[in-house]
Amino acid sequence: MVYxxxxxxxxxxxxxxxxxxxxxxENFGNASTLYEIGRVSQRAVAKARxxxxxxxxxxxxxxxxxxxxxxxxNFAIKGIALRERSKHPEKNHIITSQIEHPAVLxxxxxxxxxxxxxxYLPVGPTGLVDPEDLENAIKDxxxxxxxxxxNNEIGTIEPIEKLGEIAHKHNVLFHTxxxxxxGKVPIDVKKQNIDLLSISSHKLYGPKGVGALYIRKGxxxxxxxxxxxxxxxLRAGTENVAGIVGFGKACEIAQRDMEKNTAKLTExxxxxxxxxxxxxxxxxxxxxxxxxxxxxxxxxxxxxxGESLLLRLDAKGIQVATGSACSSQKLEPSxxxxxxxxxxxxxxxxxRLSLGVENxxxxxxxxxxxxxxxxDGLRKMSPLWDYTNQKYIEINKEDVY
Length: 401
Hints:
Elements: E1 2-3, H1 14-20, H2 36-56, E2 63-66, H3 69-87, E3 93-97, H4 102-113, E4 117-121, H5 131-137, E5 142-146, H6 160-169, E6 173-177, E7 196-200, E8 211-215, H7 230-233, H8 241-279, E9 283-285, E10 296-301, H9 306-315, E11 318-319, H10 335-339, H11 344-347, E12 350-354, H12 363-381, E13 385-386, E14 391-392, H13 397-400
Parallel strand pairs: 1-11, 3-4, 3-5, 5-6, 6-7
Antiparallel strand pairs: 2-8, 7-8, 9-10, 10-12, 13-14
């Protein structure tokens, strides 16, 4: 098996698993209790909080543990929106981008039902938000900008430091979904003008079901989950100690190995891209080639359907994705790919390979050879491909859609 879908989820690192094991059986105490096994859990949670904070240059009291990236995004956006509505009802405007993760987009759409106004910024053909567009969209009623650090589908890294600077110039809070970037690229919340930041454990070789929201000191936010006084009274519920311990260890390892892993994954990424573009007619890369995650390869092949490509590669033991795991059951084209200007027929011919530390340069030949074989086979059957002349057949969109 060649697993190349780490943007959907990554395997738990062996060091992480060993760190977690005692907290399932031996050190099972509730971290909110006062006796010894509870204090063991308290110390473990405190250590993990420091490990997460260190990854993004935050203070430990600025880290709130959650169940993952989706909850963190919801917490950040709804929590700030509720706070503003109660304190400053005239502030009702949020700015985001058209290519955000559904956890952000659906949260913003939900808030629109409650009277909030949302601006969805367009992106360029490589998925980059233009800082000038953000500048022009901010108005007196704006209280929050939420733009992801790196796109989960095409891997484009946004200029968040500049975007955060613009937001702060207008006294607007800046949130970023860093689920795909945390542990892969350096993050400094102080330097990059970030007020709130979402992270998820299972994207960086930690366990599923745990994540964090960074909330800059001084930022006031309403809780989403009410109950006990856990997480500084901002997120009620008994702490997932084993998961938090694993998350912390994963952050420590990611920080320790980031430079080494980036170099390795960049080599594999670029080798795959070069061979595919050189050897497969009408193949393209989606996303920005310069501002791109080291582990992201998002390819497009004219004249074929990505789901068929995925299933045939799966039969060869290669696990990849057509877009993002969160939308893999949907039939409509990816909102990210249509936002960068692709028509549905071309968007559907896309494939995402998201590399991980378990991959090696030795995987390249087998993966690329398999892609070539499968693409060629699918094109032989495709009504959108002129197999004799090896080119895409333009269609009249009005006849099809």
